[in-house]
Amino acid sequence: EVEMVESGGGSVQPGESLRLSCAGSGFSFDNSDITWVRRAPGPEFEWVASISADGTARYSDSVKGRFTISRDNAKNTVYLQMSSLGPDDTAAYYCAIGDSYSWFRFRSWGQGTRVTVSS
Q1: Other Cβ atoms closer than 10 A to 4
Q2: 74, burial (CB in 10 Å: exposed 0-12, middle 13-18, buried 19+)
Q3: Cβ neighbours of residue 66 under 8 Å, at least 6 residues apart?
Q4: For residues 32 and 119, what is the distance between their CA atoms, to the nearest angstrom?
Q5: Coil, strand, or helix at residue 88?
Q6: Each residue's pLDDT tens digit, 22-56
């Protein structure tokens, strides 16, 4: 059974940093593209960043230069290092199997991890 467990969220002030973790199990993690998405209050998901099985990273324009996605296949974990956080980054963050074009087909969503940026 595919399982994704997100962690690392919290409440921070504008300009601060956080590192999110996504631990995956039940699938071939090494061979999988992994994507981070987020959902602010409301139903819509926003694509944030993706990392391919070979480590190639892609970012949305809204986070490029501030967020870094990385992976540790030995730990079956993908990270999202977030810096210069602002109120617009406030959201629940989720990880999914897939790239920037296919993540929306993912169905085994975890609980997500909440990030709140406020002064």
Answers
A1: 22
A2: exposed
A3: 82, 83, 84, 85
A4: 37
A5: helix
A6: 999 999 999 999 999 999 988 899 999 999 999 99
DSSP string covering 18-58: EEEEEEEESS-GGG--EEEEEE-SSS--EEEEEE-TT--EE
Over residues 53-101, the pLDDT tens digits come to: 999 999 999 999 999 999 999 999 999 999 999 999 999 999 999 998 9
Q: Which phi and psi angles does 66 have, rounded to 5°?
A: -115, -30
Residue 43 confidence (pLDDT): 84
**Averaged pLDDT score across all residues of the chain:** 96
Total count of residues recorded for the chain: 119
The candidate with the shortest Cα–Cα distance to 101, out of 43, 57, 35, 21, is: 35
| Burial tier of 34 (Cβ tally within 10 Å: 0-12, 13-18, 19+) | buried
